[in-house]
């Protein structure tokens, strides 16, 4: 297992530190692994620092580097600060040497076109050694899925709508206005619009077809959209056509958020979006 970190900023890996947007963390990561790192507390951060890293730049012009994460800190603004540390035994690796291993390393299409941080369930050092890229380099102890931090348990389980509403109304939001959204699966669904949802392997399902789907719906249902002036108006209407969009439905009524499609009230994850 290894961290795969990609940036578009030239020379970023030559600097003492780098920041990732929290939303770019765990892209192109399988659901099973991503569920272990939804929360970033001490066990998760410790596990990440124990994983080897492959540092890359967007595109294929710059070489990749192998190393570790010396320090990880979740900033108050939600960004992830890291301090990279490179393995002096491993030289810079041109993309031409990585390309034959791309599928084996689970580096997927589009990954080198997007800044992100993924966790791959492959043995980086073993593959680099077997390919002759880093001969004679002793790898660190292999980390398996069983060694990862467990999925965090929900803080509260509701067995009835009354218990759910009672718990929600008893929360202290510090005077902020709060909006809610109910999910039937706490590890599968996140607070993110449908256009950014991924399959079980961490690949975007519809993200790169967004413009095509948008245009096709306008053409096929032009009459329904002729009165819309702004793109936002169209996107709101497209929600009713079940088109994946950048919009996220939320409600100020916590009771509405408990109406889960599959009726699994005991597995509802309450997610709140706060606005000052």
Q: How is this structure best summarized?
A:
The protein is an alpha+beta fold and 276 residues long.
Please characterize this protein's 3D structure.
- 22% of the residues lie in helices and 18% in strands.
- By secondary structure, it is an alpha+beta fold.
- It has 2 domains: 2-147; 161-275, no CATH class.
- It has a 6-stranded mixed sheet with strand order 2-5-4-3-1-6, covered by helices on one side. Strands 7-8 form a two-stranded antiparallel sheet.
- Strand 4 (65-74) and strand 5 (80-86) form a beta hairpin.
- The protein is globular, with a radius of gyration of 22 Å.
- The two termini are 40 Å apart.
- Mean pLDDT is 82; it is low at 260-276.
Computed over alpha carbons, the radius of gyration is: 22 Å
Uncertain stretches of 5 or more adjacent residues:
260-276
How do the strands of the widest beta sheet line up side by side? Answer: 2-5-4-3-1-6
C-alpha end-to-end distance: 40 Å
In round numbers, the mean pLDDT is 82
The beta-strand count equals 8
> What portion of the residues fall into strands of 2 or more residues?
15-25%
Q: How many domain modules?
A: 2
Helices and strands, in N-to-C order? EEHHEEEHEHHEHHHHE
**Relative helix content:** 10-25%
Largest sheet: 6 strands, mixed
Supply the helix-strand structural class. alpha+beta
Features:
6-stranded mixed β-sheet, 276 residues, two-stranded antiparallel ribbon, alpha+beta, disordered C terminus, 22% helix
